[in-house]
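Case study 2.
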Amino acid sequence: MKGSFRPCSPLVLDADAVIIGSGAGGSSVADVLTAAGLSVVMLEEGGYLPGSRASALATEAFPAAWRCGGLTAALGRPPIAYAEGRGVGGGTEINSAIVQRTADELIDEWRARYRIEEFSPEALAPYFERAESTVNASYTPGALGRPTDILREGGKRLGWKVSDLKRGQKDCKGANRCSFVCPNGAKQSMAVTLLPRAIGRGMRLLAHTRVTKLVIRKGRVEEVRAQATDSSGSALPVVIRANLVFSCAGAIHTPALLQRSGLRRRIGATLRLHPTIKATAVFDEPVDAHASRLPLSAITEFMPDQRIGGSVFTPSVFALSLAEDWKQRADLMMDWRRCGSYYGMIRPKGTGSVLALPGAREPLVRYALAPQDWVALGQVLTRLGQAMFAAGARKVFPSISGHKGWTNAGEVEEFWDRPLPATSTNLMTIHLFSSCPPGENADLCATDSFGRVRGIENLFVADGSLIPEAPGVNPQMTIMALAFRVAEAALALSGRARVALVDRETA
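Prediction:
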């Protein structure tokens, strides 16, 4: 994909549709609308970073592609660090491209609880298939390296189910820079797949353009107001008028935008995420995780509620993970080639919130773990430790500040039946969703069954906000599937409205 996509003058544009955000949701909407022949403008707050210009240094890569350089957290006890992409392609530029579908049992539960129409495993299957085909979902051939073998060995020796993982990829070179923007275009992010196709059909993409407000009158969005930044840093006003408006800015910034625009009901009050606790495992022999692909197997015995997997590992990222307890663990840097980074992830019962604050660029994000979540985190951490020792670990350090680490499998059970220490446990997540759930249960849902915001005729949500609850898997395929579905529904609704207008005018 070529071009800078950066505005150089104030703009007032008219279009059939405007899409706010260029990640998995926004790009999927763009693919549907441009294929139908609509004129589309897409607005993206971040810039475009081609893989050929992506830095291999964390100190440069994080500020370039991650919101706030990766320094974002949901406030609570404890705070939970979270990651969001910020740039053309959104989170698909910095994620691991793991391809997984939401379990059928969860889809059925959500349909019943939220009263979502035409929402079943069978109804969603074609959209999942389209998403998987788009990113060339495939297993990675050949040897995957010791980090993957550790998960496989640990799980199988304990008698647990272990699953190999598909990724959205073509000719992956194993650069191990998935979190830094893929340097060779092998990861099938949106900047490699759907965005070039939509631009080829005529879509106009404006990067470095932050949407500030939706102007709503008589139940319709009449204008999308934004502020672009040109190459000199000067602010440029941008106004878009469109028949259809899609907010695809993610589970944090979609509700924040809607709130800034005067919309509040059920918006931003039900944020969910995957609380994740990490552990560093030290082995007698070199793991050389920096020279291997990220672990491409996962322990799936306890899904959808608990999942154990492995993280991207580079010396700089490893050092950042040790910084949470540098005083106790700095010496591990001397042994970094023998270390691996692994995690346990849960589906939580707790919820959080997103609140747009007057004058603040970033919204206030809160999250409260439920008592059951503390139990689940203790269990998944215990299981993670058991798997590491079963695979031959010499020592395992859980992500708990001040913890001296475990030296054998018997020690890891200390948290099986008691909560983790709230003030010293370090949690993170890279999966955010559920802040604008869909359905016909007006007491629970911000949108209707097809993503249309209640009371607003032409405004739709199509991103992770729309996933009703935590799916227990990487959410990208679910985001894309729901976004395809929303876009098709919006097209059908728009077509019916045009027919009705013609009928009224000719009556």
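Residues 476-506 form the longest helix (31 residues).
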